[in-house]
Amino acid sequence: MIDIRQLRYFLAIADAPSISAAAQNIGVAQPSLSQHIQRMEEELGVKLMDRSPRGTLLTQEGHVFVEHARRICDSLDRCIADMRELGGVVRGRVGFGMPPSCSMVMSVPLAETVRLELPEVRLRAVEAMSGYLKTWIEDGTVDIGFLYDLTDAGHLRATHVMDEELFFYSAPDAWPLDTPPGTPVPLAELQPLDMILPSNGLRNTIEGYCSKAGIKLNVVVEMDAMTQIKELVARGSGYTIFAPVAAQDFVQRGELLRAPIVAPTMMRPVYLVSNPARVMTRACRAVEQVTLDVARELVQRGIWEGSLV
């Protein structure tokens, strides 16, 4: 039977240029290491590595096996760490991924709350577009994160936290509508306007509503950079659609004005997501609960505009 020690030996070889280098790295005699690999190959009935004078190369079966081995070893390490923490202080490292708009409102209060309530937990907050975050949650680069779109993410564990309404934004001196700012505007009235939109998950949400309503927006610039979109709109170079949290800094400074969109009203869900294939430590579970508490408080206080689920 293959045991955890053999899996770790195999990973050491996979990460080294040769078996001799792996043997030196982990302090095991090279002949013994070779025998372990040979026994695994006999047990599995496949060849895991091709050996040559220039080193070792994983076979196709070896590449598949190494991914399973990494997950198994990582899960065991997390299990051991979790067991050692039981009954004691919650401690450990937690990687948290946030889209830029979430980060604007959540990163500072979350970091402060974690430091206060979980002083032995080290939070590493990472800001990135949703597409990257989904991949990072899947491969373990981050432990938990916010996502707006669960398309192709049915295998992930998701908590529906809230829904955000999307608004139309314009520079004050370039307001294009007959109705004043703050007055609901039908989505169809935005069709002739020069729109500046991202090409990420927010764009998918907007296009989904437009498609159902038979509306086509005139997108003149695509840019996956939230701050630059706001700068362009504030300069009168076009118009955009955002959730309030994404533009509240420019609105507060008077650089952007907004109006709610109707017919239809466009809503975007916010999910807190983790990977059920990876074992969550006590630290991860504690940060997850703190995150939900902080998010709900921000919504209730009107700092994060949206509707709690």
TrEMBL record:
This is LysR family transcriptional regulator. Belongs to the LysR transcriptional regulatory family. It comes from Salipiger mangrovisoli. InterPro entries: LysR_HTH_N (IPR000847), LysR_subst-bd (IPR005119), WH-like_DNA-bd_sf (IPR036388), WH_DNA-bd_sf (IPR036390). Keywords: Activator, DNA-binding, Transcription, Transcription regulation. Residues 2-59 form the HTH lysR-type domain. Pfam families: HTH_1 (PF00126), LysR_substrate (PF03466). It comes from the Bacteria.
